[in-house]
Amino acid sequence: MLTSGRRIFIRQIITSVGVFLTLFMSGVLVSANAEPSPIHIAFLHVEFLNNNAEYEPTSVAEVERMEKLTQEIKALLSESGRYKFVPVPDSFQKKIAEGQALGKCAGCEFAYGRQLGAEQVAWIRVQKVSNLISNINLYVSDVQAKRLIFGKSADMRGNTDQTWLRSLRWIVKNYLLVELVRKQAAKPSPLKIAVFDFVLIDLSAGDGIIAKDAIDAENLKLSMEKARSMLAASGHYSIIDTGSTVNEVAAAGGIQHCNGCEGQLAKRLGADQSLIGIITRINRTEYTLQILVRDTRTGAVVSNDFTGLRMGANYAWPRGVKWLMKNKVLSAQHLE
User: Fold this and answer.
1) Residue of 135, 118, 124 lying closest to 102 (CA atoms)
2) Are 46 and 124 in contact (CB under 8 A)?
3) Separation in Å, CA 212 to CA 135, 140, 207, 276, 281
4) Residues of 167-192 as b/e, b for ≥16 C-beta within 10 angstroms?
5) Would you call 148 helix, strand, or coil by DSSP?
6) What pLDDT is recorded for position 17?
7) Which of 21, 162, 208, 318 is at a distance of 20 to 30 A from 5, taking alpha carbons?
8) What confidence tens digit (pLDDT) does each residue in 298-332 have?
9) pTM (2 decimals)?
10) Residue 117: CB atoms within 10 Å
11) pLDDT at 117 over 90
12) How confident is the model at residue 22 (pLDDT cuts 50, 70, 90)?
């Protein structure tokens, strides 16, 4: 039979366990329902096309209305929690306003986005036919992919603050945000990829005479880091650190001599794919580059890409990596 003191002790234990489970499950639920990170977006410009400017010049009210559209789009997207705006300095806005029309300037909007550090850029175009008939267009482009990912137009009847703002809200709430949620829900999780240290094979006449030096080592490291950064920036990959495998790779004779051991090592690290880079020095000013990606579950080669002969000493290796990653490794055929 339990004493009064023992009953109190047991109740305290049960209460503590209950509190722990409640907190634990709350954490699980919060984690499971966590929203994706906000998209860093830059709003570039409101363009106003006045088809009747010769007879009815753009009014002060219309200029002020363009600023109200700028503030409204920022408020709508910020309040959604799905976007974070990147500041656009006044000098930058002036440059955009004086340049060619966005979307018709050979990709200038992508260059603006890169300079601002944005993932996406947006702009609005209002076309006024008369005070009774106008339309408003909202555009969003992906900076990294260099393509337009959203465009929607709405006809407006009237030329007032209310008609402009109501039309913009209609586009954002019924199309832009709805489409974004759908795309994010359908977006697959990034592949986990283990990127191993790049290696150098020296076939030049100086091999054995001129030792590999600190500049070689530094540019091998920069080459590997360039590959990692481009994979991460693509949005298709998350990078797995391979530092813990250095000794095993060395014991196997190097990554280029271990018969695909990088696949098994990467699998053990929890990666879906492995990537190795091999730079072959032909002479002191020419080299080739190979980047091989392997599926860790099957050991099959996903892609095996080469640059061909390229000009440049060791300082040029990271540039070669950038070219190969952009034009082959990260091309659409490997991301489908």
Assistant:
1) 124
2) yes
3) 64, 48, 8, 20, 11
4) bbeebbeeebbeebeeeeeeeeeebb
5) strand
6) 40
7) 21
8) 999 999 999 988 999 889 999 999 999 998 888 74
9) 0.53
10) 11
11) yes
12) very low
Structural contact between residues 330 and 231, judged by C-beta atoms closer than 8 angstroms:
yes
Instruction: Kindly list the distances between the CA atom of residue 126 and the CA atoms of 73, 91, 297, in Å, as whole numbers in the listed order.
Output: 14, 23, 52
Given the structure tokens 């076309």, which residue do they identify? Answer: 127
Give the amino acid at 45: H
Element (DSSP H or E) covering residue 163: helix 161-171
Per-residue DSSP letter, 325: I
- pLDDT value at 187 more than 90: no
pLDDT digits (tens, 9 = 90+) for 51-61: 988 888 999 99
Give how far Cα 276 sits from Cα of 13, 103, 204, 271, 287, Å.
53, 38, 22, 14, 17
To the nearest 10°, report the CA torsion of 265, 268, 272, 277: -20
- Cα separation, 283 vs 285, whole angstroms: 6
Residue 3 has a pLDDT of 54
Query: How many angstroms separate the CA atoms of 310 and 290, rounded?
Result: 12
Question: Does residue 305 contact residue 329 with C-beta atoms inside 8 Å?
Answer: yes
User: E strand or H helix at 240, and its extent?
Assistant: strand 237-240
Q: Which residues contact 129 (CB under 8 A, 6 or more apart)?
A: 51, 52
Query: Lowest-confidence range among 12-21, 116-125, 138-147, 164-173?
Result: 12-21
Looking at residue 54, its pLDDT comes to: 86
Phi, psi of 332 (to 5 degrees): -60, -35
